[in-house]
Structure formats: structure tokens, C-alpha cells
Amino acid sequence: MNIGKFVLNVVVAFIAYGVLYTVGGDVIFKDAMATMAPAMHPQEETFVQTMGYHFVQTIVVVWMFGKAVGSGDMKAGAMFGVMFGLYLMATDAIWFANMLNLSGDARLPLTIMHLVNGAIIGLLLAFMESKGWGTSSAPADASEAE
Fold this sequence. Notes:
Mean pLDDT: 91
Low-confidence stretches: none
Strand content: under 5%
Shape: elongated
Number of helices: 5
Order of helices and strands: HHHHH
Largest sheet: none
């Protein structure tokens, strides 16, 4: 695995996730997301640690993409992303089923966001792989070799 390209993929995916979830949560599904606010700490209190955890999640997604897909196959990339979205949806569903005072109004919007955003990230990682920028891509020359 090329460490420089791995870092590039993590940074690109992290930024893309940030944009996608911000547009989905703060714009498209703003009202549904607001119903969860009473069960959560204010964002300004948890922003840094939340971003840290999201960064770790992104590292895992990029690493697993390299192991599971590792190619520019767009269909496989999209399916990988959908599978990761299903995993996140199931994790959310556990929280919704077990927490008191957590409004279920956001379940469907979160499911949609996880599946769509997952597919987009999978496509993005496959695209990067197809251009030689992916974690599995062979070095372009000897200076990039590990």
C-alpha cells in the first residue's frame, strides 16, 4: 500500500463525507435532524472529538476499500459504499431502538444519507483508483516506491 496515496484518499474522502453529510443533515433533512437535538450535546461542545471519530471512520473505510475492492471498478465501489452505508444504518438503528427520548423522525433521512453517501464515497474511491491515485495503485515511478 502506498502511504502517500492512502493519506490522499483519506483526506479526499473525509472532505467529501463532510460535504455530503452537511448538505444532507443541515440542508436537505434539517427538520428531521433537529428532532434529535434534545437527546444530544450541543455541537460546539463535541465538534472536535466528533470530527476525530469521523476521521478514524474514514481511515477504516479507505483501508477496507483498498482490501475489498482495490480497483477502479465503479460498480464494485458503489456496492462497497452501499454495504458500508447499511452497516452505519444498522448501527444507528440500534441507538434508535435503545435510547430514550431519541426521536425516530431522523431514521429514514439518516438511512438515505448513509446509503447515498456511502455509494458516492465508494464511487469516488474507485474513481481515484482508476486514475492511479488509489491506495492500491502501483507507483508511477521508482521515487514513489515504498
